[in-house]
Specification:
about 325 residues; transmembrane helix; elongated; four-stranded antiparallel beta sheet; 2 domains; DUF389 domain-containing protein; transmembrane; Alpha-Beta Plaits; about 60% helix; Glycerol uptake facilitator protein; membrane; 4 strands; DUF389
């Protein structure tokens, strides 16, 4: 269930209440006239089944409430109410399958912002991965994948394409490109320092690396894994039953490939640098392609589910 807290201008309250009352899956409607002070208006609260949330939010925006008042949405972790259970049963579809597009757009907007924290995380992840590729240590590679925040901008690009949001697409693409460029540049400097103190050597990079050699060996299997990871990550982002996306792309080599390319460039190993870059681009493309397809399928399935008549009470 979702809890909505609305601030409505007095002349809009009746329209808002009618919209809530006719939306299947709503309950616990409360109207407090004149309670709001900034902006001035009435306070309207209700609970709505997650599967009916997107329809209600769209209707509220069509009434202009996002401009003239306020729309706040919270997840309800526990609701001990027969009315809430009835509302969820009446709403079409399953709550876990519902996609709140406004929430998705807002979440990916935040995750795809080019910030100091984002740059720091992706740089640290790439430096950890650099240690992993030189030492041929799979544990460090997995750790770098978990730390890397690059799925945020990737999810932002997917959402922007499906929702036709060019600003979000530009913001996400900027964060992705600038983030990787900065991380690789810093990692190259880090590699030079590690080489100067004798902790990195060219021989280590070019030796047989059974645990991490796949990072600069792109093939069709790499693309298949990227597709699967992209679909899993997108479902995790949109599902009501999934948590944060830390380490969602564990099985793909985005950050490790960037790290391997940076270290290889330091040692003028153009073969590894080129193949690592190919691996990076292949995985980025696969994740975005799978993410877009997953969102399109979810959108189609949900529209089809909403066309079905609600079950009889």
């Amino acid at each position: 269930m979702l809890h909505l807290r609305l601030i409505t201008p007095s002349d809009t309250t009746d329209d808002v209440v009618r919209l809530i009352e006719k939306t299947i899956g709503t309950t616990h409607l409360v109207v407090v006239p004149g309670a709001a002070r900034n902006p001035v208006g009435d306070v309207v609260m209700c609970d709505v089944a997650r599967e009916a949330g997107d329809e209600l939010l769209t209707g509220l925006q069509e009434l202009g409430l996002d401009r003239t008042g306020s729309i706040a949405v919270e997840n309800i972790d526990l609701s001990l109410s027969e009315r809430a259970g009835k509302a969820e049963a009446e709403a079409p579809g399953e709550g876990a399958d519902a996609v709140l597009w406004e929430h998705l757009t807002d979440a990916t907007h935040e995750e795809s912002t080019l910030s100091f924290t984002y740059i720091t995380f992706i740089t640290l992840a790439t430096m950890i991965a650099a240690c992993g590729v030189v030492l041929d240590n799979a544990i460090l590679i997995v750790g770098a994948m978990a730390v890397g925040p690059e799925f945020g901008p990737l999810a932002g690009i997917c959402t922007a394409v499906v929702q036709r949001a060019p600003r979000l697409a530009l913001r996400s693409l900027t964060a992705l490109l600038v983030g990787f460029a900065a991380a690789m540049a810093v990692t190259a400097g880090f590699s030079l320092f590690m080489d100067a103190v004798g902790l990195f050597t060219r021989a280590q990079l070019e030796a047989d690396r059974p645990n991490t050699g796949f990072i600069y060996a792109p093939d069709w299997f790499s693309f298949v894994v990227a597709l699967l990871a992209g679909a899993a990550g997108t479902l995790s982002l949109t599902s009501a039953k999934s948590g944060a996306l830390v380490g969602v792309a564990i099985s793909v080599t985005t950050v490790p490939a960037a790290a391997n390319a940076a270290v290889a460039l330091v040692y003028s190993d153009t073969n590894q640098a080129g193949r690592s870059s190919e691996q990076l681009l292949l995985n980025l493309f696969g994740i975005v392609l799978a993410g877009i397809c997953t969102l399109l399928v979810q959108k189609w399935v949900w529209r089809k589910a909403n066309r079905r008549p609600a079950p009889a009470a």
